[in-house]
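Bit of a strange request maybe. I'm writing a small parser for structure token strings and I need a real example to test against, not something I typed by hand. Could someone generate the tokens for this chain?
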Amino acid sequence: MYEQIKLPYATDALEPYIDKETVETHHGKHHATYTKNFNDLAEKAGMANLSAEELLASLDKVSDETLRKGLRNQGGGYYNHNLYFEMFSPNAAKEPTGALATAIADTFGSLDALKEQMSTAAAGQFGSGWAWLSTDKSGKLAVSTSLNQDNPISEGKGMIPIIALDVWEHAYYLKYKNLRPDYIKAFWEILDWSKVSARYEQICC
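Reply from user aminoacidic:
Good idea to test on real output. This should exercise your parser:
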């Protein structure tokens, strides 16, 4: 059974950057629905024994187009939101450490340059979707975007996300209305780089 992440902080702990009502609605309603639907579809497909990552990487093996699309959307929604909510902290470390800090400097030149590139990508994503910082198993980093609930795993390019920046309107509209760039700026204030660094090292180092 795929389990929705239990928030490691109170629903009001991310204020003023993300408000309590948004967390309660986004996690308690949207994410909960993705989780339930993904479990139901994985059972129907006979794939519930796979991890979410394994299932999303194996969508081409699902012959039923409707079922495959449902798994992609609901499974992506489940996986993406687990990563999104996990990486926040009210006492977030402001900089990466160790291998990730080195990789960011080598790839982007600086942390500020990475933030600028990813923020620009997120702000420019048309409609609903995500911006990502991902790594492959060798530690190579890349910024990308995806539509709807797609992610680098379901895109089959060998990349695994370590930062998920949600730019669906339900992630920010209650507080920021149509000012997506303001939400993106706030995102960096609560992203816990210690968690991102640990995830990077778990995947590639």
